[in-house]
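Model it.
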Amino acid sequence: MRPRFPRRVGFARDLLFAALFVTCLLFCSKLGISKPGISKPGVSKPGVSKPGISLGQSTDPGHSNQAEAAKPAQDKKDDAAQAAAKSSAHHFDRVVIIVLENGDYEVAVKDANLSALAAHGASFSNFHALFHPSYPNYLAMVAGTDFGIHNRTRFLADRQVNFPSDAAHKTIADRLIASGLDFKNYVEELPEGDCPYKIDSQHISKSKKGDYVRRHVPFLSFREVQEKWCDRVIRVDSSKGNSLLGDDSSFIRDAKAGLVAYSFYSPNMNDDGHNTNVGVAGAWVSKFLDKTFTEKLRKGTLVIVTFDESDHNSDNRIFTLFLGDMVKEASQQDPKVLDRHYTHYSVLRTIEDNFGLEPLAAGDREAAPIKDIWK
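Modeled.
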């Protein structure tokens, strides 16, 4: 038997289906599910991504940078910590780089103090500086390039430059701060005053302290640091450092409170060996690590002791040592690993990989990170 009111029944059925469809749409929209076959603007379909763009990544770099800048500082730190934790290359929480001056590998490796320190870490036998003279090496350590400074004559290549604050002249400081991390450059006998970047050198008279030169303080060569981050270039009075007498230097006070992720330590020209010799530099760094920056303060910190360049050898081979509770003792190291070819760029790349940072320039981008020395 047919229904008596077929049109009314059909109308009611259609109305019910329409109501169910609208309800389904509302429910899906709350869950963030798009209609089948229709993609939301800016979101790729599953399994399909644009070349060079990750899923969910904004294609508008300006928007991405603005969003990152708007993040609270704590959120940035949390993001940085998560990125570092996810990195398979994460080995240390902090790094301190101590740069000594003008030492041939063949001389430094035989120094009693440096040799004693090397027994507790990874001392590389095929590590090379990049240039002569000093200054372009310091730039390369923090920027992944020396910006062509080494192409000038040897005398002019040690003359300091003030690089403009633009996208072409970035340092690891930019990468760290953008990731919610931080940096400091500690400088023995840094001249007094607000950001004394105009002082290229200063003789310390009537004192046992060594002289100061700006070319050993690489971050002061960048306008961006001079204008925005000069408070992170910290003066260290090398005559202080006796914790028992409450006479801590600025570096040790920071070490006791907790160092930032990246610290670059620039000794004065006596302590680094420039105006003295490798023996004096070795004795200073040994005392600094044994008596001042003690093992207790170094927990979780990778200490890198290196030279800027060689003195007289032909291949610019230099002594470089990694120390820390994350580095295997010398007796556990593989000599073949320690004999791999490394440079200052390799150190920078290792630090970048550890903190999940993008390389800065061709030098560090193409360098091999240091591997197989870790516990």
